[in-house]
Amino acid sequence: MEMFQSFLSSTGFFQMSLGNILMIVIGITFITLAIAKHFEPLLLLPIGFGIIAGNIPFAAGMAVGVYDQGSVLSYIYFGVSQGVFPPLIFLGIGAMTDFSYMLSNPKLILLGGAAQVGIFLTIVGAMFLGFNGAEAGAIGIIGGADGPTSIFLSSKLAPHLLGAIAIAAYSYMALVPVIQPPIMKLLTTKKERLIRMAPPRVVSKREKIFFPIIGFIVTALIVPGSLTLLGMLFFGNLLKESFVTERLAETARTAMIDIVTILLGFSVGASTQAVRMVEEGGVMVNKGFLTPQSLMIFGLGAFSFAIATAGGVLFAKFMNLFLKVKINPLVGAAGVSAVPDSARVVQIVGQSEDPNNHLLMHAMAPNVAGVIGSAIAAGILWSVLVPA
Amino acid sequence: MNFFEKGLQNIVTYDGYSLSVAGMGIVFLALVVIAAIIKLLPLLLVVLDKIIPEKHIEPNSGVRKSADDGAAVAAIAAAIYKKKQKVG
Predict the structure, then answer these.
(1) Cα(A182)–Cα(A175) distance, rounded to whole angstroms?
(2) Partner of A270 for a Cys bridge, out of A54, A230, A248, B69, CB 3.0 to 4.6 A?
């Protein structure tokens, strides 16, 4: 009988808290959004299931959760906490990215830079709300709209906020089609949204091969902190464009990125335990997901996304003051690096005004420039804010 | 010190303003350099093409050229014809 009672007290039902129930509901919501609404299913489904797994309570002393030394999940989470998975995802992204739209119209790269204003304004906002420099840097990078970069930087600067930052970044990436259009329409006139852009020029094979090599050397020399992410991005792209390593490129953009996405998504989700008491200076402190800090991170993330979108659109309008051949300012919104979702949003918003206006290929230029820009920003923040 | 003043003080303590301005500047600088290199790349490649002409590398698409297919079919047909003659 005692054994039975001991078993009963060790069940999840017995130890379930309100916080766990809330997190499980959030996990189910993520899965529902992925399946029913097709919002970033490749990310939201593993994360959603991971959230549920991370919030099933278990008896103390059992090595089950991601934070328990020696547990299976802790080994998977190692790839997140030590920043191993994000560069591997960048390798896959590089192997599937076509830089030719960017190479054909290099001035659009600047839009990818302008959208990074979201990162740097959010850093100021986070500091205003009481976060320290390293925490503010890790939160600000959400504005880069790049999940792997957010995870990479927060694992270096503020590992205790990693779960909240990763969930916020991926949630907002999934919500790009909801967040961006109202801002894009608010900041542009109908006449501007109707601007048609000239078709991009044909880019030679040699340009495509030279770019990842030169691009990597230049960016790594300017910001060595971005070496890991950009090195893998450009290396993956060289595998693709060289045509002599097609097998490697194929593996990087299919099997490898899929495996890493599964492991990353699930373990990030599982890291969102509602309550996790940790001893800090002799006092037990809640380092779980359900804290006022997490709410602030979600608020700052939304602000960051909105500012990044506005930054890209407004900079495109600014560039138009000096350009003879005008840019459709909608493409500026693709400067946030949610590839290719934000470029797709530009296409959809553009076509809602003129069904024959195809902006997708033009939007891909700031979109991939945004990936480079946010990785550079992450490198800068890492080198400046890394805790001693 | 109220919440507002405390927040502003925190920004100053962690050099928030200078970090933002310098960070944005460096991101822009890096991207401007990349844009400039991309702009110059075709010109450099024109010079390179004169020294080492570009070979047209076709992607390994799995589709064979029709000329190759014709030659292969002709060779196979000839071999079958010869074999049949010997058997006959």
Answers:
(1) 12
(2) A54
